[in-house]
Amino acid sequence: MSAIPERIRDDFPALAQEINGHPLVYFDNAATTQKPRAVLDAIQKYYEHDNANVHRGIHELSNRATATYEGARDRVAQFINAPAREDIIFTRGTTEAINLVAATWGAANLGAGDVILLTELEHHSNLVPWQLLVERTGAQLRFIPVTGDEGTLDLSVIDNLLAGVKLLSLTHISNALGTLNPVAELCAQAQAIGAVTLVDAAQSAGHLPLDVQAIGCDFLAFSGHKLCGPTGIGALFARRELQETMPPYQGGGEMISKVEFHKSEFNVPPHKFEAGTPNVAGAAGLHAALDYLDAIGLDSIHAHDTELAQYAQEQLSGFEGIRIFGPAAERGGLVSFIFENVHALDLATLADQQGVAIRIGHHCTQPLHEKLGVPATARASFYFYNTRSEVDRFIEVLQKVIKLLK
Length: 406
Description:
By secondary structure, the protein is α/β, with parallel strands linked by helices. The protein folds into two domains: 4-27 and 298-405, Alpha-Beta Complex (Aspartate Aminotransferase, domain 1); 40-295, Aspartate Aminotransferase, domain 2, CATH 3.40.640. The chain contains 14 helices and 19 strands. The protein has a seven-stranded mixed sheet, with helices on both faces. Strands 15-16-19-18 form a four-stranded antiparallel sheet, covered by helices on one side. A two-stranded antiparallel ribbon has the order 1-2. The protein is globular, with a radius of gyration of 22 Å. The model has no long low-confidence stretch (mean pLDDT 96).
């Protein structure tokens, strides 16, 4: 097992606490990750020393704030190997990033009868924005099906599904099942027929190396809070050629170059899509988070997460009456499951009383859960600061809880 947790756990203040008299075991990382001191310090430093509005000021604090904000843009571009810093648009997170694409590129380029291809694995953030767009434009949705409880995509039908597609938008790693999708292969197939491609990297950014040029996508979105950064900050990679043709997302300050009473001229991308005062402190924290992750190494983080998920899956498979979802082989750093005649809510509530934090519900993938025939699953999701001994504690608590509930 990787030695990463032993080296870095002290960097995360939240992990040192007790919950209900027990040491915290935090297995809800797919929802949000904990924050290292480096990120907390970066946010505090900004507010204590550099707090000002960006771009338009000429005083020193504004200059510092601008350098912090634009420096974070450079850092994000480097982190995902974007061709240019201008390809990075700051958003509140993955949800806003996808909504931005739907409201700008989608509204300008999709019309009645045009096909948007998604997968049955999608988080509501990569489903509902397209449903809203379909209602406005008359476009239609199509879905790549999943195969049983393993939740892998049935690519035997991909050629038929791609016929007439204008946009392919899909998750990189399923937040519900841990499925790791072949995004580079699918983006190449979609672009071969002239379709635009979007990758939801909410569960992969910060968990494995990301290279938008290797993936070959037109858009890619991720959230800072799922990779040790603060909430309320995220990024959208958008190819500059597409940004040039996209109308503004919101109106206001910063996104304009000239305003008259009856018309406006808009700023150059990416500023055209960043109306209003930005989340400068969030950008500072995101920058620090990316530095922190790169110091550990994304390859090492991916290996650690995968190994821990496989170990948890092996231990869970020993329970009677359990149903485990997701790929049997390589998966992202999570495992979802249910027990016969045990409600997931009861399971999570009793686990919390023992200091173990897991998530239950449909995980914002309600259509997927309907296809699986279950209203909810329990999900344990891992990150590089989690340990094998925490998995052992998790299994021990589950044994007590199942015995009690049955």
